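#random but structural
TW: two for the price of one
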Amino acid sequence: MKNNRSAILWLTQGAAIAALYVVLTVVFAPISFGAIQVRIAEALTILPLFTPAAIPGLFLGCIIGNLWGGAIALDVVFGSLATLIGAVLGYRLRFNRWLVPIPAVLSNTIIVPLVLRFGYGIDLPLPLLMLYIALGEVVGCYLLGELLASALQGKWAAIFRDFPSAVSQKKKGD
């Protein structure tokens, strides 16, 4: 019975994270797409710190957000894979809160400029596109993500129950 409850909770959390990602991407569409972008939804890439349900939630949210936002197929596939890579590796780094956003920043910095150049035909040097995307990811993942993590820090047990987070495991070891 507990396994069914945990599975339902995990699916619900993943779906809620996906829905939030979509809403934040679409509502802030003017700054979520293009060569210079700050995707507000990327703040959610901090959530693997609290729950593994964030991994499929972020991936599915990015797919739907890109589709709904009018992205080309190349962007839907590879932009979403960049988010998936960031979420999986961020979850693996969950025992150090400050490391969790790094994979999302790096994967998007490497993959998204290639999509912008070869998918959308944006004729800027790749290093410049990488710089633009990296800066936007730092704002989304670190600045906004850390604000979100701070807001959730004391509330994680009520929101993400049944999943031991790095936060709870750290406190047990102190």
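TW: number two ↓
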Amino acid sequence: MSNLNRDLTVLLHMKEYCEQIEKTFDMFGKNIEDFNLNVVFRNAISMPIFQIGELVNHLTQDYIVATQNDINWNEIRGMRNRFAHGYYDMDYSIIFDTAINDIPQIKEFINKEIKKLMK
């Protein structure tokens, strides 16, 4: 698989996880109190965020370097690491804020990149 195809494949998977988060909000709403009280809601948001962070590790280094001024891959990867190594200690408000504010921006970036890579 070429590096271009590899990066495109990874971005397509990331987009799917962003869309899962959107669908979860469609099902549960966007109320932080509900999020704090409902473990199913939290898990349905948390796992896609974790997976997006995990997928950063599958992007080529060339792609990460080329796009690092447009998106902070280290922060995304760092969120994954917090989930993997300290989920029991996660602040739900940070997870919720990430899903509400950061995921739409990440999805927008990914959509633009997918269009570029598919040309």
